[in-house]
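Minutes, project huddle
Topic: does the predicted pose make sense with flavin-adenine dinucleotide bound?
PN asked that the exact inputs be recorded in the minutes so nobody has to dig through chat later. Recorded below.
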Amino acid sequence: MAIEKEITLTLADVVTGRLQLAVESALTGSQRLSVFRILRKSIDARGRTIKFNYKIQIYLEGEYVPPAIREREFSPLNADARRVIIVGAGPAGLFAALKCLELGMKPIIIERGKDVRSRRRDLVAIHREHSVNPNSNYCFGEGGAGTYSDGKLYTRSTKRGDVRSVLETLVQFGASEDILSDAHPHIGTNKLPGIIENLRKQILDAGGEVHFDTQLTDIIHDGTKVNSITLSNGDVLSADAYILATGHSARDIFQILYDRRILIEFKPFAVGVRAEHPQSLIDRVQYHCSPRPDPLPAASYSLVHQVGGVGVYSFCMCPGGIIAPCATEQEQIVTNGWSPSKRNNPYANSGIVVPVAWSEMGDFQRFGPLAGVHYQRAIERDCWLEGGSSQRAPAQRLVDFIERKKSVIVGETSYQPGVVATDLNGLLPEWVSSRLRGGFEAFGKKIRGYISEDATLVAPETRTSSPVRIPRHSEFLHHVQIANLYPCAEGAGYAGGIVSAAMDGERVATAVFLQITGSA
Ligand SMILES: Cc1cc2nc3c(=O)[nH]c(=O)nc-3n(C[C@H](O)[C@H](O)[C@H](O)COP(=O)(O)OP(=O)(O)OC[C@H]3O[C@@H](n4cnc5c(N)ncnc54)[C@H](O)[C@@H]3O)c2cc1C
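Predicted holo structure (tokens), as shared on screen:
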């Protein structure tokens, strides 16, 4: 039986590689170390002395050492395997496909975007030529929205599935084992594409299908079940079940559902800006030292403050990261952030956002369940116009934003298409900007230096979550009206982030299996 121990090291201990020594000293008498594994690693930087806390699993000499992960196995499919169409190759679609294969069903993935390598060329075109391919960009393409991201893997949805199993699957397909033990695991933009590619190869090897450059363009149904779907290449496909895992930016999908009278609902979401600081500033505040010594990762922050009855909060913070141009159509600006695995860029950026509810939709309420889509789109287009009808984004120094004063110039930012100095107060809805100002003032008191000459805001951050919910049966997970249509993950309003989307994909695939085999 492996022994578990809690071990705390100082920064100096870590720098001098004392972990093994500390593990050996934790043994008693005749115990001899065979191997040890880190089960959990976290850094406590609250006090003056930084502590590295480890939970260690120790195997003694002569003991059986089990593998670090349970590898998933995929048997060949039977010729008469039930067919499941999965629309979208994001984390939800890919993990749904793996689960289908494990359950003996044939997944057929339909993806509007390109494979993960070809997709990269379209990202370069956004940066250099300000040209947005509506099917291949930071949100669309193999791997989905999370592919060129920070790859943060933490989730609050621990009750909705097996987080450990998702992490182990990522390790099986190429992620570092560190993600199994880090308190705040992340993968990084440079490593994610290889993992996605390996997942796809597995899906193909096990008998699944993956169709790139293929967009779902229509859903044919009789009010209770889908009969077929139409694709951009003219094909019409039928299957036993249809999983809709198209993400929060597939506005055409929301429109198709609305036009085809398949029930959708307005869902609250959040909008705001990306705030960027020198990483060295965040490191200095969080670690009380400068420069940051080597074993310490780029520091992050998580902030929330109530303003006028709503929580202004930080979202998707990217330490050592870059602000990314995430538009999915030509005439819009959308920001988000990514980081390489080493998080070694000189900037720290984070979304700072305000929730918007139905009551804030004002005139947009005339669009019914699509009100949020039109609200987002209006902000994104206003920002595009302000940026000179290009991918240059409106930006403002944080101090000017708080003082409601147009910035004449802004400092350097990581946003590569470039920025245009402006007053974001006039660009964002007043309800949003006034709350953001209140939030920033409070954050300035929580993190000394947060409001500084070096802090820049880049706008807008609009795609925090889906503005639409596609309602589904609480137990069987199919659409409330259409028995073989399965709304899945972020686009349907049931996940937020890579891990929770992957878990929802697996859950939905299991629900499909139970329904089509009559076990539900
Ligand atoms: C730049 C960026 C950074 C992010 N960073 C992180 C992070 O660090 N950690 C984290 O947890 N989350 C992060 N996210 C959010 C995360 O990516 C999403 O929560 C997650 O990808 C949602 O998974 P999904 O499978 O539900 O949808 P998506 O990943 O959005 O995938 C949907 C897929 O459906 C396809 N599709 C859409 N419409 C159609 C159609 N009509 N026909 C065929 N295919 C279609 C799209 O091309 C896309 O590939 C980030 C997002 C972005 C944009």
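Observations noted during the meeting:
- The chain has 14 helices and 22 strands.
- The two ends are 39 Å apart (CA to CA).
No decisions taken; revisit at the next huddle.
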